[in-house]
């Protein structure tokens, strides 16, 4: 296919001395630059999301579509799907991003029956596979859309009607086949309709059990077909449901452990979901990492003053720094990555805005990476932390740390040693030093 | 001791026909009335909290104390502590509540050393035991105050300095001894300083491990001394810390399972904490109950438009109805109860306000209980729910419910049966029927 | 037209003894019953909103339409518009509600040009006028939709491009003509796109001036054509914009006074918007009333734990009681009313759910009215309030109240009289008494 | 003065090449450096607040004092007050800040009577005046504490008891005298208790009138004594009250205009209060500036995930940049300034933490200033904005801008010109360019 959708834009260059007006070049992201033992590309593992950037229309609950995309017009649904895929690969290539993510129903239009939908998906993934080979772009993760079709309005795996759950199961089975076919490195479950709007009409215990059984079937099928990718659950507290079971990182971890699923899943953390759950931006990234459960990051942002998911491109350098610090400290996100689950504002109607937004976010993460590497390599903060927890490395502290102490021993310690000394937490000092690196 | 602190108030009567001005009698709570197989007293298991109602001064972050209580004035700290305890038992008795809850440091003043504090506690609990025997009032739960003393400013079991952790351990050891002595039916851990203000100066992984080890030591000591009470953790998302590890019910459940502690603990849910975590009033009560982890309830309320813990007396009939419906459905809260972790407003300076507030809340729960019993006994809502989930009781649904189905079978079911039918969730119908009972 | 859309439902009866299952009759709302000098119908002035109940599809940001309405299918846009109008009047009549509200673009489909849109509107309002005459149903208010069309994405009266403002002006001119033609009792301005998403690209001062000038033109045209209805502004803090200029009642009052518009406008308060602005449910109703600016109420509710506009049917009796108490105390809302700017949940797919939801809400308001009348007529609370502020009715208090005192006099008063006495605010007593009436 | 309280710390130097560990020198703030026509000191007009930094104890609602300050120990209340003032001036001087702010009751302890309190204040302000002369440090603003004393629990100027209002009036009279004596450049009113906890026990209309009359008396007395300073009201939405009348900038502007007070007052905006009102950090600074009402800024920050006032030191460079951009565009804040209404964390117990926190915040603002100057001087963003609103500078746009257009003309314009063209809002481009300057 010869159509070029972004004719005015060529491959995005790296140009560190560019001025403020130059919004179509990277000023910070330099894919091949090596930092702390890896290239920027290896640390950052950026991914473009298909739904926002290629299927998004700009419609919102109060307004009609605003984004007129040439690839979304003209021809049958399958024709459009193919044009869209070509446009996307043109975009990935010009932007220089090596991964993409998609829902089954983004890639291929829903058919009148499951069988037809599956045929659509077969045809489209043939094309995707070809384009992947041509360009070297890979699938960071696939997911099934189990929330947009009206059949899922009361839930997919938690629907009170098992017929709907069965439909979702059939869709996931196909999704797993697609993941294998395209070599997806991860597979995501986002439970947008797994929750409730009203406690009055909901049997929470039954729904949680069904959701767990659903995941178990997916694990079994994954193993059966020899699919190697990492399963990920993406927490979100609410929206579209009033309450979603996968509220936040700790809720999902509790659920997985309750049902014996924690060996089979990690988490895909989206900071905009984290802030909707009442936490700070980095909270779930840090918590999931601490519990060894951080699989991937949907790198976007919301507005702290808004109570819904705005999926904005992440532009805050402090936030990107703390996320990258966590990522480096755990040795990198692979096989996960930084997926831009973000959309241009519906008012950003120019095709170039798609580029500008991604470039701005990639530069923000490149700055974050650079800052994090300096913080880690200079070791000032880690040195202060080591000092702060020093008491747990010897004597009674070591016994506590290793789980060998008793209340009686600790009481005796106090009887011998009396009141502890006062130690400043020095929060402002840590903040100032952190600011030094921004 | 002969001093009567609430001279103007005699035992609170039940008087169902009393008018709006009669705020010093129960219009709904009738302790001995039998509903759904138990007395109101047995279902409701009310408890008065010692700290708010007898130690509270009305100070807030912007103002000095407003509540002048005769029992808090005159004499040495121990003299005051005794007067306070007498006042409390007078209050319990006149109000007709059979349980109370307290922190170690509410009951007895801090001494200059651990040993002195413990002696204070011994002397005060001797008196408490005597008053318990005289009045029949019992301890619903004890807890240790591990947050008010400046030594705990950076955490107790999660303090970066093991010396502080040791102090907390010594205090808990004594607290467990006190629980045994007074026959407490539960023992609560509230981790107000177990969390962080800044992620920069915090080693979350180390702190969580230390907290878990701390709990394990408490379990070991409990078993050693043959203490029979139920251990409870009380979740709270934030305040005083920016983030507390025991964020909400699911966070605590996840933590307990991670560290193998879930057999030893249940949860003490405070709805004002639940709403601060971004959930609806009843959410954590319901979730904890579903997971078999609901131990007790701190029956209070906040204001949905405020972002801090206001610990108000619960007065909303819809809320008390849904809580009591959950409680009845799980067969009652015993050995837990409904503890009024609530304080009169600092502007409610009259001694009678303490009675008015408790009476209003007890009546609100009595109405909730009555409503819940009618809802359950008439069975309209439960019948609708049973119908709603009917598909899981036979055929493929039953296999899913029992964890015996596969994705392949479910796909086959869809190939045979096609699209599910549309089923209204009927939320407004449920809401209207629920309103019918209020 | 002979089609009957709600065949299974006949006129909703009043049946006070109906049971919980009877959700298709009023148990509390009795239109002709006289309370406190007026009929329920006169006090409550219910209105059905056209957009949610007849144009709503159930689509949400994560899902496709769920509500299949026979009146929305088959034929040209104008054919559908007419069927929809017939369905609506059938609904109004069966429900027994005397008012409706609509946007210009709900009533008649957008045309390719302004002129065509206006012709559509002419044709549809001819039909509406005929149906109004046949049924006696009237227009509570009209409004122009200045937010859904993509042209308004950057604002209508605050758009940086005056060409868009001009379009909005043309639309409002026609809307005012329609208001006159149909005898609308009010005209509402809701500024959903009047605000910003980013302060970086916004000239707030210019936009506010343009919005004020826009309102001035509307006032001038209203006067020119002799339109008698009340102009209303509906505050909302955010959504769809990140920030909307009409944030809440006080923001709008400040704006109106700044630009000399306060004599020409009152407010249409929607409690779901009020709670999104961080206030309690009744706050803006009360504040607008205190400032003499309460024109009408969009009687709906949100969920306090959600950060977006859910437009649920109001079912909380405490809330309806406090709103009706405010309404009675100001002598009624006329020419405003209680407009159900509420939608059935997208999962409530049965046509009867539309009836159930409205009936549930009307009953909730009827209970609120009944409670409020009892509160007012028994006078217990008002008596307590009068007593509380008694000091301002004589002596130095009266001088302060009338604005005749000075700091010097008041200082002298303190020198004579010393410290004021402590007076309990007795919040729990007020709450208990209020509960008595629920 | 012989006691030196901060012995280990000498005058804070400017040392741009200092490393991350050097938290006791300025790396960015260089008082005498000229930027955009003024020195940094002139643009930034920093002020230290007396209450947090010298009276603060570290007590919080869950914990006892943690901050042991030598100046708060030993001697009578007046002795302590004097030591504290000496310590403060030592701090101001070493830090190099030229302004301070205080409440009457911070400076001098409450006496048993108004007369005694006033005598304390006379004596303390004599000393303050002397220290001001010695050091050149000046008063940015004074305010009266009308919220901490229990007498104000139900409000000061809005108290239901006029006796309390009279006390507040007497206190303000003295406060104005003090302002004159010390040459305060502004006088602030913060209405922490002017609002309500319960709408049930509150006559909002009466309270607002009394508050307005109270302000009128203050204006009259100010004029009588020839006090030249600027009156400022500081908005806060809630805390300690459930609702405060001075909710946010627009609420206060509406109130002032309603009561004819807007010529006599400007606003003192605290961003931590702005975010508690549901706005973005800079919102009220921008809105007040647009309305010509920005008088001064309490430069602090909160945590977006917390619902109470944390009064943290501002460290976010993006925030300081946007505030300084607004300040420069309005020509500077004088006679207002940037007052650090911020406190070290209660865990930051080292005396040096007071310095570290102020230095970190001053550097953050110095970076913000530098960024803002570059943004303004390079003119990229302002040029884009000018272009964006160009349509209002000629033709029909100019008529709209000047208030000379009519709906009829604008309709005619649309009939001639048809649909407006689509114009991207380019938010991400603005964000990227803004980031360029950080």
Structural account:
The structure is a homotetramer of 438-residue chains. With 438 residues, chain A is of the alpha/beta class. Helix content of chain A is 46%, strand content 11%. Chain A is built from 16 helices and twelve strands. Chain A has helices spanning 40-44, 50-55, 77-95, 104-107, 114-135, 162-182, 204-225, 249-258, 271-276, 283-290, 317-329, 351-378, 380-388, 395-401, 407-417, 427-436, and strands at 34-35, 38-39, 46-49, 99-103, 138-143, 186-190, 195-196, 230-234, 243-244, 265-269, 294-298, 338-340. Chain A has an eight-stranded parallel β-barrel with strand order 3-4-5-6-8-10-11-12, surrounded by four helices. In chain A, strands 1-2 form a two-stranded antiparallel sheet. In chain A, strand 1 and strand 2 (38-39) form a beta hairpin. The longest helix of chain A has 28 residues, at 351-378. Chain A is globular. Chains in contact: A-B, A-C, A-D, B-C, B-D, C-D. Chains A and B meet through helix 6, helix 7, helix 8, helix 10 and helix 13 of A and helix 6, helix 7, helix 8, helix 10 and helix 13 of B.
Topology:
Four copies of one chain form a homotetramer.
Chain A: E1 34-35, E2 38-39, H1 40-44, E3 46-49, H2 50-55, H3 77-95, E4 99-103, H4 104-107, H5 114-135, E5 138-143, H6 162-182, E6 186-190, E7 195-196, H7 204-225, E8 230-234, E9 243-244, H8 249-258, E10 265-269, H9 271-276, H10 283-290, E11 294-298, H11 317-329, E12 338-340, H12 351-378, H13 380-388, H14 395-401, H15 407-417, H16 427-436
Parallel strand pairs in A: 3-4, 3-12, 4-5, 5-6, 6-8, 8-10, 10-11, 11-12
Antiparallel strand pairs in A: 1-2, 7-9
Helix pairs in contact in A: 3-5, 5-6, 6-7, 11-12
